[in-house]
Design brief:
Order of helices and strands: EHEEHHEHEE
Shape: globular
Radius of gyration: 15 Å
CATH superfamily of the largest domain: Vaccinia Virus protein VP39
Largest sheet: 4 strands, mixed
Bound molecules: S-adenosylmethionine
Oligomer: single chain
Structural class: alpha/beta
CATH class of the largest domain: Alpha Beta
Length: 139
């Protein structure tokens, strides 16, 4: 299992970096790796991809603190899909109805085969904003 993030060394308010937090969570998982990279530079193939809260509009990316050159949702989606093996699946979770709608438009623009999973509920944790899911299959 590989986890990929581009901004691994930014700090949470408790002064731990995303990298340190990830390292803690995967410490007992034998085959888990946290990779500091631009997703566009990843070229391995995967059976399953889980993509949590992609930047599908510019404002959230700007607010997050990433440079504008990293805003390329269509290219990112296309690339993520290319990393799937035949028969593979990708679960995308979006935050808020507006982002879920933009995600739908992107999926349709790229002609990807998807199922809308509706609102995602979590029994253990109350999300600040509603979350919605899409399951994309590669045949
Ligand atoms: C809104 S955050 C979601 C963070 C995390 N997945 C979560 O659920 O807490 C978006 C994440 O996308 C990652 N990201 C954005 N553009 C990226 C890129 N081109 N390559 C790799 N990661 C990227 C950033 O590292 C950031 O952590």
């Amino acid at each position: 299992m590989d986890g990929v993030e581009i901004d691994a060394y930014r700090l949470y308010s408790n002064f731990y970096s995303r990298f340190e937090v990830a390292k803690y969570y995967i410490k007992d998982l034998k085959n888990a790796k946290y990779i500091v990279s631009n997703l566009l530079d990843i070229n391995k193939k995967y059976d399953y991809i889980i993509w949590l809260l992609p930047f599908v509009s510019y404002e959230p990316l700007k607010y997050w603190g990433l440079p504008k050159r990293f805003f390329c949702p269509e290219k990112m989606l296309n690339h993520a899909f290319s990393l799937l093996n035949d028969g593979g699946q990708m679960l995308i979770i979006n935050q808020g109805k507006k982002e879920a709608l933009i995600q739908k438009e992107l999926l349709e623009k790229l002609n990807l085969n998807y199922t809308f999973l509706g609102k995602i509920e979590n029994k253990f944790y109350q999300f600040k904003n509603d979350r919605f899911g899409y399951l994309i299959s590669k045949f």
